[in-house]
Design goal:
This protein has one domain: Metallo-dependent phosphatases (Purple Acid Phosphatase, chain A, domain 2). It has helices at residues 12-15, 37-47, 103-117, 147-156; strands spanning 2-7, 26-31, 51-53, 71-72, 76-80, 83-88, 91-92, 100-101, 125-128, 160-163, 174-177, 180-184, 187-192. The strands form 3 sheets. The chain has a 6-stranded mixed beta sheet with strand order 5-6-9-10-12-11, with helices on one face. A 5-stranded mixed beta sheet has the order 4-3-2-1-13, with helices on one face. Strands 7-8 form a two-stranded parallel sheet. The protein is an alpha/beta fold and 193 residues long.
Length: 193
């Protein structure tokens, strides 16, 4: 199954020069945050497949005007075509504001989700906004990754961790951590699951 993953920067290749033929094999769209609500609504309308999203640290406007036709998977696990997808958006807390978390707060979110969902097996895809700690993250507090994502990969062995938040021009787009492929979705990326 082909999945279009988007984050942080609206692609002119997709938005301004849309060609349905390029996306005919896409079965799902996942947003890792910090995109205009109108862009996500455009994608779900034009590609005509489900769109799942988490919040980026700049997605405050989603509270009053969420993307139309899209499903927020924040603090949830959903199953699509047999694939279990878990969503944990936001970044490290670097200023007052929403969708920013300390390491302790992110760990607590994960713990509550494990209890709520009774995650005894695996999750196939972990969707985040921030990266994992020391795997393609930045040095400043805003762009530093979460250590609890490493613990999650150790325990649940997801096939993918999809994130945004960092322009991959500064870092690699792809990383491997044990059996998990980590993909920085800045802009867009197509993956096959």
């Amino acid at each position: 199954m082909k999945i279009l993953v988007v984050s942080d920067e609206e692609s002119t290749y997709i938005w301004d020069h849309f060609d349905a033929e390029r996306f005919k094999d896409i079965k799902l769209i996942i947003s890792c945050g910090d995109l205009k609500a109108e862009y996500l609504s455009f994608l779900v309308t034009m590609i005509n497949v489900p769109l799942l999203y988490v919040h980026g640290n700049h997605d405050i406007s989603y509270k009053s005007r969420p993307p139309e036709g899209c499903e927020c998977i924040e603090d949830n696990v959903v199953t699509y075509n047999g694939i279990r997808i878990m969503g944990l958006g936001g970044s490290n807390r670097y200023s007052p504001g929403e969708f920013q978390y300390t390491e302790k707060q992110m760990r607590w979110r994960m713990a509550k989700l494990r209890l709520k969902q009774k995650l005894t097996k695996s999750v196939d895809i972990l969707v985040t906004h921030a990266p994992a700690y020391k795997i393609g993250d930045g040095e400043d507090l805003c762009h530093k990754g979460f250590q609890c994502f490493i613990s999650f990969m150790d325990q649940y062995n997801p096939r993918f961790l999809l994130h945004g938040h960092l322009n991959y021009g500064r870092n690699q787009r792809f990383h491997q951590y044990k059996n998990t492929k980590i993909i920085n979705a800045f802009g867009y990326q197509i993956i096959e699951v």
